[in-house]
Amino acid sequence: MFGRSRIGTAPSHESKIMTKYLIRRLLISLPVLLVISALIFGILALAPGDPLSQFASNPSFTEELRQNIRRSFGLDQPVPVRYVKWLTGFVHGDMGYSFTSRSPVSSLLGQRILTTLSVVGIAYLISAFLAIILGLTAATRPYSLFDQITTTLAFIGFSLPTFFTGLLFIIIFSVRLDWFPFIYNSTLKVTDWSSFVAQVRQSVMPIAVLALVQTATLMRYVRSAALETIYRDYIRTARAKGLPERIVISRHLLRNAMLPVITLIALGIPSVFTGALITEQIFRVPGIGSLLVSSIQARDTPVVMAVTFIYAILIVCANLVADLLYGTLDPRVRYG
Description:
336 residues; mainly alpha; MetI-like fold
């Protein structure tokens, strides 16, 4: 009975420690996010130019009408007052209204988040899976032909910028071979098998471009971490006990080699939600990245502010997730 009681109370004690750790981290993160939001809002508010300059060249908009529009957006108020109002509204789910489309910022983001997740998210999952498989395989066969080929391809993929790779893919697979369309059709709706195939065909090239550079980046770190771990004493002991190689790799090598890679993978998750700026511009993917670029060009401050601050929130959350994964993979890490 003593052993049963001990087993039953251990997880509860561990969960209490983790809860306290989460609360402490959240209390630290809130002031950080507050400072970040103030800095972003101040930079955008004090940037040169007029957000409503698009109305200046339109003769149908009189000066009185422009002042009324400015007043309706709250641009006639001091910057601190506008910041407090924006922060209060953001906490309650109100991100303001776009200066360009006159529609809520939340609806603009909602219209594009699915496209961004379907392209950037799938590319990130593919790249993480391939990087772990290729990195571990190359590390278990160091300086072999497979290791040399994958390392060379990783350096090539890491060195080539996405705009060059995207244009190269368009020339080869769209212009020369005519396999895939080079313009993403945002009006396409998946209703049957043919529309599903069309959706897959137009997503192949942007996903491939993003997966290429992300796989090359992550694979280098996975291989390096695995090479550093594979010669440790506990790996040799596991092999000396006669354990199968797959058990040694999955239970001993992978868990310890993934510790330094977790930070890279976790910090890359925010980019899944905020989109790929260059790739979305090349293939005309209507994602959040292209929305951010067009909003910066049009000085649409509410949209820029919402996207950049959401990105900051995601980075803070990704760091928290990485810390929690450290304790899951490494039993030596304690939150107490």
